[in-house]
Amino acid sequence: MSLKLYVDRVSQPSRALLIFCKLNGIEFEEVPIELAKGQHRSPEFAEINPMKAVPAIVHGTFTLLESHAILRYLASAFPEVADHWYPTDLHKRAKIESVLDWHHSNLRRGSVGYVLNSTLAPAIGWPLNPQAAAQGEKVLLASLSTIDTFWLQKDGSFLLGNSQPSIADLSLVCEIMQLEVLDEKDRDRLLSPHKNVLKWIDEVKNATAPHFDEIHTTLFKVKEMLHLKKSAGASS
Amino acid sequence: MSLKLYVDRVSQPSRALLIFCKLNGIEFEEVPIELAKGQHRSPEFAEINPMKAVPAIVHGTFTLLESHAILRYLASAFPEVADHWYPTDLHKRAKIESVLDWHHSNLRRGSVGYVLNSTLAPAIGWPLNPQAAAQGEKVLLASLSTIDTFWLQKDGSFLLGNSQPSIADLSLVCEIMQLEVLDEKDRDRLLSPHKNVLKWIDEVKNATAPHFDEIHTTLFKVKEMLHLKKSAGASS
Q1: Can you name the residues that pair with B3 across neighbouring β-strands?
Q2: How do B3-7 and A62-65 pair as beta strands?
Q3: Straight-line distance from the first to the last Cα atom of chain B, in angstroms, rounded to the nearest whole number
C-alpha cells in the first residue's frame, strides 16, 4: 500500500515525519509542498488538506492530518517500528501523550511565534512583527526551561527519563532546530542557559543519525540564504 | 485503585474529565483546585503538577497531566468505557487524534485568548487586554468555521461524521461552552453563523445528559457573578 508524505522540509513537523520514516525503514514517496511558493494553497493540495497545512499523508486511500496524529498512526500501522517510539505499555504511552499534548501550547507556540515574527516572515511574504516576536520569546523561554527542569529527568538521555527516544523526543527536537535560522548570537542567548536541553538535542541527533542531518540540510540552506540577504542589506 | 482528579469546574478541560468519568461510571475523588484562589500555585499542588495547571490525575501511584492524555489514558485503562469514546480501530482512532491535536493551536488558543482577555481576566486578578482579545477572536472564528465546514460532516451527529461521540467531541464542546461567560449578544455574534456547530453542541449535551449540565453549573454561576459585577459597575 503506497504511503505519500506531503511535506516541506522547512516545516519542523514535516521533518519529524521524514526522519521517523527513514529511521524505521518505512517506504514512502515524498511530495514536496513548498510553503514559500504558496503550494499549500493550490486546489490540488486542498483536496488532501482543506486547511492548507503540511504535513499530511495519504496511506492507500486513508488521508491523515496533524503531525502527532500521523506519528502515532505510523508507529501503530507499521510493525517494524520499535516499541520505544510509541510504547504499547499504558503508563509509558500516557506519559508520552502528555508531552505531545503539552508541546502545542508551549514549545511550538513559543518557537513559531518567535522565529516567524523575528526572522522568517519575510521569506513567506509577511512583515516582521516585533510585538508578536516578544510574546513568542516569553513562551519559548518558559518552555525550554520546563523541558530542562521537568520533562528531562536525570536518569535517562531522553524525555521522561527514558533510555530510548520516543516520537515526542523527535517532534520537540525538530521544533527546537527551527532556531537554527536565527542569528547565531540570538540562538545562543535563547538556548545556552538550558544545559540539559543542549545535551538532549545531541542525544536525539546521535540516535537518529544519519537521517537527522540529511533531512535538516534544507533548513541550513534557508539559514544561509537569510543571512546572505541580511548581509547584503547591511552593506547596501 | 484510587483515582483522584485535581480539577476546577471553571476550567474547560477539567469539566471534560469530570463528565467523562461520570458518564462511564468511573469512580473518582474530585479534588477542587480553585484557580481564582491561586490554589494551583500551592506547594501541595506543585508536588502533583510542577507546571501549576489543572487538570491532573493520580491513579494509584501514577500521576498524569494534560487533559487529552488523561482522557486517552482513562478510556484505555477502564474496560467499562465504550469503544466509541476512543476507538481501538487504527483508522478511526487516528482521525480522532488529528482533531485532538488540531484543537490546541486552533479552537483552544482562540477561545482562551478571547474569553480570558475580553472578560475573564479580572476574575483571576489580571487586566483585560483588548489587543490579545482581538487576536484570540480571529483564531476562534476561524476555528469555529473549520469545525462547521470540515470536522463536522453531513452523515453523522458528531465530529468526523461519527454516529456516537468521542473524547474529541467532549473536549471541543467543553471548550466552546466557555463562551457562556461572555455577554449574550457577544456569544451569539460569535456562534450563530455556525449552524452545524450549534446543532452539534446540542447533540453532545444530549448524549452526555444529565452530567453535562450538572458539571457546567459552576460556569453558569461565574457567568451570573460577572454580569452582576458588570451591572453594578454600569450603575455606579
Answers
A1: B59
A2: unpaired
A3: 54
Nearest residue on chain B to A49, judged by CA atoms?
B150
Give A55-104 pLDDT, tens digit per residue.
Answer: 999 999 999 999 999 999 999 999 999 999 999 999 999 999 999 999 99
Torsion sign, CA atoms A81, A90, B16, A108 = negative
Other CB atoms within 10 Å distance of the CB of residue B205:
15
Residue owning grid cell 493551536: B105
d(CA B205, CA B198): 11
CB B74 within 8 A of CB A94: no
**A36 secondary structure, DSSP code:** G
Task: Provide the chain A residues 143-202 that lie in CB contact (below 8 A) with chain B.
Answer: 146, 150
**What are the φ/ψ torsions at residue B208 (nearest 5 degrees)?**
-120, 10
Q: In what order do the strands lie in the sheet with B62-65?
A: B29-32, B3-7, B56-59, B62-65
pTM over 0.80: yes
pLDDT in tens, B52-104: 999 999 999 999 999 999 999 999 999 999 999 999 999 999 999 999 999 99
If you count residue pairs, one on A and one on B, with CB atoms under 8 Å apart, how many are there? 81
What contacts A144, CB < 8 A, 6 or more positions away? A107, A176, A190, A191, A193, A194, A197
Contact A85, A20 (CB under 8 A): yes
Q: How many CB atoms lie within 10 A of CB A234?
A: 7
Cβ contacts of A62 on chain B, cutoff 8 Å? 91, 94
